[in-house]
Design goal:
The chain is mainly alpha-helical. It is built from 14 helices and two strands. It has a two-stranded antiparallel sheet. α8 runs antiparallel to α9 and α12 packs parallel to α14. The chain is elongated. The N and C termini lie far apart (47 Å). The N terminus is likely disordered.
Length: 255
């Protein structure tokens, strides 16, 4: 089973990921190098949302081993989280220079490029990553392509890429949410219902999906089902963004 944690570099926008299995594999070695120990410390800080401390450790890992492509990826993710996008781009490019077969870095590089305004270059990296058969997360590359097109209001391309993403991985929630937004923007909210129902069968109780399905039901006149899904989202995430959104939406329901 693949294990990844997500670094979100823009609210509701593009995402990057790190395979937690990398650190686990290294800690299982009989003897770690100094660079590997620093890398693992940086990874732990990044996972716990301590980017300033992560940055120190990844810089240390790079200094201890200038050929450590994993450390450069970690450095790039940390810079991206800190909003230092030009440094993130440089770090990801260095990781690829050191290991051209480290294909999932292309997804990270694409995200940093798009976020820094180089949208065509970024989408080209997403596409290259998606088309590479060794990419461990093609669904993420497709989802990021969909998100880029969604932001550009190219809704038809967005729909195609979001559909491609959740077809590759039915239990990945993010593309279903983008798909629902894109078909809604095209004036076809009914098309979101089926995929969102599938998504909730794959990941039952996921609050964001419950909110999206509640909205889709509401827009297609299925008010009782809409309220049921939104109430469930509010129960499952009472203090979180999905729960608050569900409660706000229910205030607009007809009495």
């Amino acid at each position: 089973m693949r294990e990844f944690f997500i670094v979100r570099v823009a609210a509701g926008g593009l995402i990057l990921a790190f395979g937690a299995s990398i650190a686990l594999a290294q800690t299982n070695q009989t003897r770690m190098t100094d660079s590997e120990a620093s890398f693992n410390a940086g990874l732990a800080h990044l996972r716990e949302n301590r980017p300033a401390l992560a940055l120190e450790q990844f810089k240390k890992a790079v200094k201890e081993d200038p050929k450590n492509a994993y450390a450069y990826k970690g450095l790039g993710l940390t810079y991206a989280q800190l909003g230092k996008l030009s440094d993130a781009v440089a770090s990801f490019r260095k990781a690829l220079e050191l290991n051209p077969y480290y294909v999932d870095v292309r997804n990270d590089l694409g995200s940093a490029l798009v976020l820094s305004g180089k949208r065509a270059e970024g989408k080209a990296e997403f596409l290259a990553a998606f088309n590479d058969p060794t990419n461990p997360t093609p669904e993420m590359s497709a989802r990021n392509l969909g998100q880029a097109y969604l932001e550009e209001k190219n809704y038809r391309e967005a729909v195609n890429w979001f559909r491609t993403s959740f077809t590759r991985n039915k239990s990945y929630p993010e593309p279903y949410l983008g798909f629902a937004e894109a078909v809604g923007a095209l004036g076809h909210p009914d098309e979101a219902v089926g995929p969102l129902e599938v998504a909730l069968k794959e990941t039952p109780g996921q609050p964001d999906l419950l909110v999206a399905l509640g909205q889709a039901y509401y827009k297609t006149g299925r008010f009782t089902e809409a309220r049921s899904r939104l109430e469930e989202a509010a129960r499952r995430d009472p203090a979180g963004p999905a729960g608050r959104r569900a409660m706000e939406l229910m205030k607009t329901f007809p009495k």
